[in-house]
Amino acid sequence: MTDQVTGVLPSATDSLDPLGDVEKGKSKNRAKVGSARPSSLLYTYGPGSIMDLPSFSVMPAGLDDWESIWKRREEIDRIFEPRLLNVVRKYRGNQVRELRPFPWQPKKGPTSTEGSDLGVPARVFPQWLRCTHCHYLGPLSRFDYKNTHPFRPDLAQFTHKCAASGKRGGWPAVPAQHLLTCTNGHLDEFPYTLWVHRGKKCPNTEREPDLKMFDANVGKSVGSSIKCQACDARRGMAEAMGAAGREKIPQVCRGRHPHLGEFFPGCEAKPALIMMGASNLWFPVTQSIIVMPRSDAEQKEVLADRLRVELNVDDLRTFGDQIPVIRALAGARNIDVTELDDEDIATIVAKALVPPTAEEASEDSHAGRDPIELLVPEWLYLQQPISFPEQQDSAGLMVTEMPRGRELNPLINRVVGVNKMKKANAVLGFTRLDEMDRISDLPSRVVPLTRSNRPTWVPATEDRGEGIFLQLDLDAVDEWERRIDDQPISLWTAHKEAHRRNFARRFSETAAEIEPDDRLPDPRYWLLHTFSHILIREMAMRSGYGAASLTERIYAWKATPEREAAAGLLICTTASDSDGTLGGLVALSEPDKLQGIVRAALRRAARCSSDPMCAQRTPSDPEDFLHGAACHTCCFVSETSCEKANRFLDRRFILDLPAQNRFTAPGFFGSIYGH
Fold first, then answer.
1. Which of 99-103, 165-169, 503-507 has the lowest average pLDDT?
2. DSSP letter at 604?
3. Whether residue 9 sits in one domain with residue 71
4. What SS3 class is residue 105?
5. Distances from the Cα of 228 to the Cαs of 126, 131, 135, 212, 234, in angstroms?
C-alpha cells in the first residue's frame, strides 16, 4: 500500500508515553508501531480514536503533540482550498489559518529511510492490561514493552513476567476492554479497584491491591469478573451494563481526554460504560469538497493564504509596498505570481496582513450553518455544460457531458462523466456515543483536537478519482414529492414519526432542544439516496472497483429564495494515489453501458430475497429505525460508501413494489415489470 502514515510512540523524554527508543547502546525499543493510509486516519482512526494493533491498542494524539513532528522539517506541506478552509473556520473559529496533510514523506525505494522520522504521535490506550497467562490485571507500568525488530512493528507487545510461569520474556498482555465515556466525549479507564470493592478501599492492604480478570461464559455468569488478590472480593462486569448498571458506576465524569493527555474537570454529563471496540466510541466530524476550477477572486484568495502562511509576516510588513521584493520572496517559496500585475499583488499582500479575528465559532452561527452550502457550488458548476470544455486539468476536475442512451429511463435527463476529480477533506473533531448530524449543531458537543480548543490548523487530505453524475428530471421530482407530502396517512408519515422517536432516544443530552423534523431529509433525498445505493451495488460488479471503494454524494434539496432545487447524485471513487483514476468507473457513463446498469439495478431492487418482509417493513411505535424497504440483501452498502450510515433508504420511493401494505408511496420510477 502507498501513502501510508507511520504511527509513532514518542521518545522517553516526551510528554506522551515513554515507549520510544531508549539510550544508545542498550536494547532498542523502537517508536514505530504501525502504519495507516491518510483516509483511514481521517475517517476511522483519527485523534481520539482507539486503533487496534496486533498486541495492544493506541490512541492518536491531539494536534499539540503533532507540532514536535512538524518541527523536524524546515518547510511544512499545506493544502490550499479556501472554500474548505472557510467552512472549517465556521466550525473551529477564525484563528484557523491553514490545512495540513498528515506528516508523511514518500520513499525513493523499499529500503530507503525518507520520512522515517515522521508519523502521527500516539498514546497507548487503554493503559490497563491483562496477562493472558495468569489473568493479572494492572496498569501499564506493571508490564514490559518490547519492540526491537526494525521491519516488524507488528511484533511490538507488552508482556507480563508471571511469578510461577518460568517463561523467558514473559507472557503477552492484552488491553482491558472496559471504558467510561460521556456525551461530552470524555473517555476514561474503568475503575476496576473501586468496582470490585463496591466503592470502598480494600480492607486487607493500604496499597493498591493486585487484581485478576477472569472470563466466564457459563450460565448466568456471562462476561468478565474482577477478583481482588488481597481480600478475595469478586464482582462481575455484567453488573455495570445496561440502565441499571449505569447507576452503579461512578456518577461523576472526571473530564478526561486521553488524546490531549489532560483532564478538564467540571463535566456535568453522567458516565456510561462502553467497550473498547464499540462502533459508537468515535465518530469523526469531517467536511469535504470537490475541488473545482477557481474564479479569479478565488485564485487570489489562495495566493493570499499562501503568502500569509509561507512568508514571514515581518517581511510582508516591511516590504509590502515593494512589489519586486514581494515577487522575489514569493518565487523563493515557489509561489507563482507571474500572471498577476502589481496592483493585484498589492491587494493580496494587504489581505494577507489582515490577522484572523479572535471571534470563535459561536453556538448560534454554528447552529445556523447550512450543510448544503458546501454542495451548492458543485451543483451549480455541473449545471453549466457550456463551461466544461474550458476547464483546466490543474483544477483537479475534468467532466464531460455524455449523450443519453435511447433506452435510458426518461426520468434521468442528464449524465455527466467525471473523468478526473480531486476531493479535499478536513477533520474538525469528533464525538462519542452519537454522531454529530444526529444530535445537534452545538460546537461544544465536538471534542477538541487541541488543549486550548483553538487550533491554528487542522489535518486534511487530498484524494483523486473519477465518477458519474446523474441528474433526475427536476419537474418530475417536484411533482412526485408533492404527491408524497399530500398523503395524510402514508409511508412518509410513518418515517417522520419514527425519526422523532429515534431523535428523542439519542444519547445526546441536547437533542431535546432541537426540532427533529428539521433534521429529517426530504423525500427527494430518500429517493436519490436509495437510487444511489442500488447503482453502487450494480456498478461495483462492472467497474473493477470494490463496492467499499465507491462513495456517493447526494444533491437533493427543495427550491428556496436563496437557491434552486437540486436532484442529482454523484457516484465516485477517490484515493490518495493513482488507484482512484483507473478509468473503470467513468467508462460506465457511456450510453450503452449506463442504460443497461440502470435497468439491471432497478430490476434487482424490485425483488429482495427477504420479501415480502423487507418490502413491507415500516417502523411503528415503539420502533425507531430510519429505513423502510431496505436491507443488506437489496440496498445496504458498506458504511465507507454511504454518507448517512445506511439510514434514510426505502425501495418504495423508487419503485412500486409488488408486496404492499397500507403504508404505500408512489414509486418515482413506477413499476419495472414490463419495461
1. 165-169
2. H
3. yes
4. coil
5. 20, 15, 12, 7, 6
Q: Please tell me the distance from the alpha carbon of residue 486 to that of residue 314, in angstroms, as a whole number.
A: 64
State the pLDDT confidence band at 471, using cuts at 50, 70 and 90: very high
Domain boundary among 256, 281, 306: 281
Check the CA dihedral 243-248-251-257 and report its sign.
negative
Q: Which long-range contacts (CB under 8 A, 24 or more apart) does 314-321 make?
A: 316/349, 316/352, 316/353, 317/353, 320/346, 320/349, 320/350, 320/353, 321/346
Q: Is 203 found in the same domain as 158?
A: no
Judge if the upstream peptide bond of residue 622 is cis by omega within 30 degrees of 0.
yes
Query: pLDDT higher for 477 or 397?
Result: 477
Same domain, 245 and 137: no
> Pick the residue with more confidence: 511 or 36?
36
The total of structural domains in the chain comes to 4
Give the helix/strand (H/E) hosting 458: strand 457-472
Confidence (pLDDT) at 672: 73
- Is the domain of 250 the same as that of 157? no
Q: Is the model's pLDDT at 366 over the cut of 50?
A: no
Q: State how far the Cα of 102 lies from the Cα of 493, in Å rounded to an integer.
A: 45
Tell me the C-alpha distance between 16 and 92, whole Å. 25
* β-pair partners for 7: 34, 120
Establish if 107 belongs to a structural domain.
no
Do the domain assignments include residue 661? Answer: no
Residue 306 grid cell: 499562501
CA separation for the pair 23, 352 (Å, rounded): 45
As given in the structure block, the three cell numbers for residue 430 are 469528533
pTM listed for this prediction: 0.82
Note whether residue 188 is domain-resident.
Answer: yes
Least confident span in 143-152, 301-310, 651-660? 301-310
For residue 114, count other CB atoms closer than 10 A to its CB: 11
Q: Give the number of other CB atoms < 10 A from CB of residue 150.
A: 10
Q: What is the mean pLDDT of the chain?
A: 82
510 and 406 co-located in one domain: yes
Instruction: Find the domain containing 524 and state its range.
Output: 397-420+467-653
550 and 620 in a single domain? The answer is yes
* 499 CB burial (10 A radius; 0-12, 13-18, 19+): buried
C-beta neighbour count of 126 within 10 angstroms: 22
State residue 571 phi and psi, 5-degree precision.
-105, 125
- Give 220-267 pLDDT, tens digit per residue: 445 789 999 999 999 999 888 888 888 999 899 999 999 999 999 988
369 is a domain residue: no
pLDDT at 61: 92
Q: Does residue 185 share a domain with residue 54?
A: no
Among 584, 660, 569, smallest CA distance to 615 is for: 660
* Residue 153 and residue 10 share a domain: yes
